[in-house]
């Protein structure tokens, strides 16, 4: 019989559909299975670290606007103790509402004080992060989140979090400030700060904690207005988890720091009692040089005393000054203060400059830290136009041979990353630190012994495929232009790994230069567009800007609809249908009125219709 059997298209689609339903559950299905509300389900999966999945679709599948979860993850949540705590709180809240409805205020107060359930996230933290290093590597988002809410005022007064608050509570705000102060104190005590960067969003920091680089962002302390389109209930759940995670991390860091200090004190006492009795372990010269560089960097502001003006963000300026062994004072004492950090074009009326004090802008501190050296203060004096501020996370700013070797490795991996990609400001900073710095060859200061590739790697790099040799030889060969001038391109020696990567990119089609014809065509189109805009009238310009604004509003509307929840989205669509139908009726009435006024039609009261004349 035709059309039946396991091999038909319909049977195969049914099998795929059955497999799909067994493997995935929608958000609503998962919440019904766990017998919790949507808000409680979101809170539960965030705390447990279970996130939506992108399922593998089958032909004719629907529900592309829904969130899907693995069925095995939901089955695992059914035995979660935290789920039982949420159910206990729902029962507690139901009984409390009943007592208040009966106006039994005293019984309701006693019930709330004695029977309110609580829970701990300690078990969940240990499940998600089996080792301390795992938690430390995943603390960047936690720090950014906590530093953000440490700068915001609370909107709800509450001492517990089992309710799942919508806005920042008083107790959580206090905990955020406590965690922020403890973290900054630890970084200051260990001198772990390495890089900083000032951006529009805030100030970025990178520190070295137990051999791991941790980067976080601090917002500026301005008065902020919370946007309405943000779902704060979800952010509060993340904040609740992040606070518990950072408590675990800080407890371990502070405990290890105390043990290290005790061992250091006991070792010094033993060394005084038995001088020369013990021998130190041998340390290589590379480690000694590296330790000396780190010591010079963390002692950058040693011997300097800073006074911070009131318009500067004191918490950030004080943090970076003390992290590099600088001293911050609250009063301008002549003879003691060496630098005044000021962020205004001139002093206030009546104030005079103190002799021997450099009045510099805050960017000087950040540039010195990124350059790993003291820069001249001439370009950063009060009232002067500041030089460009370069991000240290994109390129090496200092003239450190180790970081320049990293730059050499980046050049070997990608031929497009050449010296032209380095901002001019980086060359200026390197020349300030080392007058013998050569801009043309930034790698000249690296000794041959310090290079990463040995002689064997160099021999292997010379043996490459014929295809790579031919492309490199053609690109590096001398060429003669129309005027007869010979142009010689620099030949870059590649490692074996770099050449394999280049061949793979060329096979895929990436890393190809733009053809000259295409570039000229694009340039011509841009020039024609600019010329047309210069020649357009005022009305045309207004119409064009109105169309651009309408297209931008439509794109914003589409983005908001994409992140909107399912129920509000359906309600919004229904409202738009009603608005369009009413607009259609109004447009029809307006059209009839216009025709009557212009004499093109006449209204007949008997038939209540228009008669065209």
What topology emerges from the helices and strands here?
Elements: H1 9-23, E1 24-26, H2 27-34, H3 38-48, E2 68-70, H4 71-77, H5 81-101, H6 105-114, H7 122-128, H8 132-137, H9 140-150, H10 170-190, E3 193-198, E4 203-209, E5 212-218, H11 232-273, H12 285-298, E6 305-308, H13 314-323, E7 327-329, E8 339-341, E9 358-360, H14 363-371, H15 401-413, H16 424-433, H17 455-462, H18 466-476, E10 479-480, E11 486-487, H19 496-508, H20 516-535, H21 538-563, H22 566-597, E12 601-604, E13 609-612
Parallel strand pairs: 6-7, 6-8, 8-9
Antiparallel strand pairs: 1-2, 3-4, 4-5, 10-11, 12-13
Helix pairs in contact: 3-11, 5-6, 9-10, 9-11, 10-11, 10-13
What does this structure look like?
Helices cover 53% and strands 8% of the residues. The protein has 613 residues and is α/β, with parallel strands linked by helices. The strands form 5 sheets. The chain has a 4-stranded parallel sheet, with helices on one face. Strands 3-4-5 form a 3-stranded antiparallel sheet. A two-stranded antiparallel sheet has the order 1-2. The longest helix has 42 residues, at 232-273.
């Amino acid at each position: 019989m035709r059309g039946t059997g396991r091999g038909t298209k319909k049977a195969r689609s049914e099998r795929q559909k059955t497999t799909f339903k067994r493997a995935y559950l929608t958000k609503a299905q998962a919440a019904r299975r766990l017998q919790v509300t949507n808000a409680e389900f979101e809170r539960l999966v965030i705390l447990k670290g279970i996130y939506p999945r992108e399922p593998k679709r089958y032909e004719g599948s629907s529900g592309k606007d829904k969130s899907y979860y693995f069925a095995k993850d939901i089955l695992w949540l059914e035995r979660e103790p935290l789920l039982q705590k949420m159910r206990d709180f729902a029962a507690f809240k139901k009984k409390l509402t009943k007592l208040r409805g009966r106006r039994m205020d005293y019984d309701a107060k006693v019930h709330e004080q004695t029977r309110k359930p609580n829970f701990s996230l300690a078990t969940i933290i240990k499940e998600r992060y089996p080792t301390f290093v795992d938690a430390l590597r995943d603390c960047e988002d936690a720090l950014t989140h906590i530093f953000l809410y440490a700068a915001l005022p609370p909107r709800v007064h509450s001492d517990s979090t089992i309710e799942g608050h919508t806005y920042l509570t008083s107790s959580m705000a206090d905990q955020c400030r406590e965690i922020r102060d403890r973290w900054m104190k630890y970084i200051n005590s260990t001198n772990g700060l390495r890089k900083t960067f000032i951006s529009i969003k805030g100030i970025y920091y990178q520190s070295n904690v137990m051999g791991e680089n941790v980067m976080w962002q601090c917002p500026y302390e301005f008065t902020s207005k919370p946007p309405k389109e943000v779902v704060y209930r979800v952010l509060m759940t993340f904040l609740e988890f992040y606070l518990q995670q950072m408590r675990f991390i800080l407890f371990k860091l502070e405990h290890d720091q105390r043990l290290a200090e005790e061992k250091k004190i006991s070792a010094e006492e033993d060394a005084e009692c038995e001088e020369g009795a013990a021998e130190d372990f041998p340390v290589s010269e590379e480690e000694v040089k590296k330790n000396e560089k780190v010591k010079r960097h963390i002692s950058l502001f040693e011997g300097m005393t800073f006074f911070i003006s009131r318009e500067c963000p004191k918490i950030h300026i004080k943090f970076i000054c003390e992290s590099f062994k600088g001293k911050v004072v609250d009063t301008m004492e002549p003879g003691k203060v060496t630098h005044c950090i000021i962020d205004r074009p001139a002093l206030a009326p009546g104030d005079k400059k103190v002799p021997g004090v450099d009045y510099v802008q805050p960017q000087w501190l950040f540039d010195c830290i990124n350059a790993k050296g003291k820069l001249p203060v001439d370009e950063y004096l009060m009232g002067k136009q500041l030089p460009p501020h370069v991000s240290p996370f994109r390129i090496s700013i200092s003239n450190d041979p180790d970081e320049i070797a990293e730059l050499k490795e980046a050049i070997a991996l990608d031929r497009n990353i050449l010296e032209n990609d380095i901002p001019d400001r980086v060359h200026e900073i390197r020349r300030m630190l080392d007058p013998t710095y050569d801009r043309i060859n930034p790698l000249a200061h690296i000794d041959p012994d310090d290079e990463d590739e040995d002689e064997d790697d160099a021999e292997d790099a010379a043996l490459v495929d014929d295809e790579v040799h031919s492309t490199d030889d053609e690109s590096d060969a001398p060429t003669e232009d129309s005027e007869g001038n010979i142009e010689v391109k620099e030949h870059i020696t590649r490692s074996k790994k770099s050449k394999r990567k280049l061949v793979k990119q060329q096979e895929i089609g990436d890393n190809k230069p733009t053809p000259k014809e295409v570039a000229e065509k694009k340039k011509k189109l841009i020039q024609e567009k600019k010329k047309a805009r210069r020649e357009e009238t005022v009305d045309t310009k207004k119409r064009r800007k109105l169309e651009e604004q309408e297209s931008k509003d439509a794109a914003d509307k589409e983005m908001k609809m994409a992140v909107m929840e399912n129920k509000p989205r359906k309600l919004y669509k229904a409202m738009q249908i009603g608005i369009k139908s009413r607009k259609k009726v109004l447009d029809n009435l307006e059209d009839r009125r216009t025709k009557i006024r212009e004499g093109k039609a006449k209204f007949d009261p008997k038939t209540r219709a228009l008669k065209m004349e």
